[in-house]
Amino acid sequence: MFIIEGNIGAGKSTFSKLIRERLPDANITLEPLNDWQKQVYGQSLLTNFYQDTKRWAYTLEILTMISRVREHINLQQQKNSIKIAERSVYSGHYCFAQNSYEQGFMSQMEWHIYLQWFSWLVYNKCQIPSGFIYLRTKPAVAYGRIKKRNRHAEKTISLGYLKQIHEKHEKFLIEKKGLFPELAQIQVLILDCNKEFESDSKQLNKHMKQVQQFLNNHANNKKQL
């Protein structure tokens, strides 16, 4: 299983769909945004989070963790030789949930409850992924893309918040700080996604070649074991 990671606005959904076109035999799982964007009891949790972060941080992080673990389990049970997911329970924890706690959006009690669930679910239900594909994007570029796509739930996202999430991704995928040992050993393919790739065939082909080589290297290493 390989996981596509990156900041909000990095182009993960678009990139995942383009991989699906290039690798039709692969099982591609998109981030289950509808699980927390849809109206629940007359409310959208994602919209609530951006409008009143401290009130809704714990609720949203628990819900997204459950959704991502469920998708992770479903994908790891599939028999496809190539399985790719958009975002993971790991970035949910190391980037978003940790940031919410450090910024004071979650209380000490909420954080400890979250950690108990995260530790139990990840260690008991989730197989370690084969690799991460990091769509590395500058916060200002991601912010511009968010404004351009103009999603209702994202209207109040600030550049400052994107900078915080970017720093968390860097620590998670580049510096690998604070990860449990098995996760720290996972290889990371870093793609510079500051340039538009959906409409630039040259840039897209460059990324896809790197992804294909990354997948092939893993397959070859696995055969040698």
Task: Give the helices and strands, then pairings.
Layout: E1 2-5, H1 12-22, E2 27-29, H2 34-37, E3 39-40, E4 43-44, H3 45-51, H4 53-76, E5 83-86, H5 89-102, H6 108-125, E6 131-136, H7 139-149, H8 159-175, H9 181-184, E7 187-192, H10 201-224
Parallel strand pairs: 1-5, 1-6, 2-5, 6-7
Antiparallel strand pairs: 3-4
Helix pairs in contact: 3-4, 4-5, 4-6, 5-6, 5-8, 7-8
Descriptive report:
This protein is of the alpha/beta class and 225 residues long. It has one domain: Rossmann fold. The protein has 10 helices and 7 strands. The strands form 2 sheets. It has a 5-stranded parallel sheet, with helices on both faces. A two-stranded antiparallel sheet has the order 3-4. Helix 4 runs antiparallel to helix 5. The longest helix has 24 residues. The protein is globular.
Count of separate DSSP helical elements: 10
Write down the overall mean pLDDT: 90
Strand count, sense and closure of the main sheet?
5 strands, parallel
Number of domains: 1
Helix content: 55-70%
Number of strands: 7
Distance between the termini: 17 Å
Q: What is the strand arrangement across the widest sheet? A: 2-5-1-6-7
Just give the CATH class.
Alpha Beta
Low-confidence stretches: none
Strand content range: 5-15%
Name some characteristics of this structure.
225 residues, alpha/beta, two-stranded antiparallel ribbon, 10 helices
Give the structure's gist in a few sentences.
This protein is of the alpha/beta class.
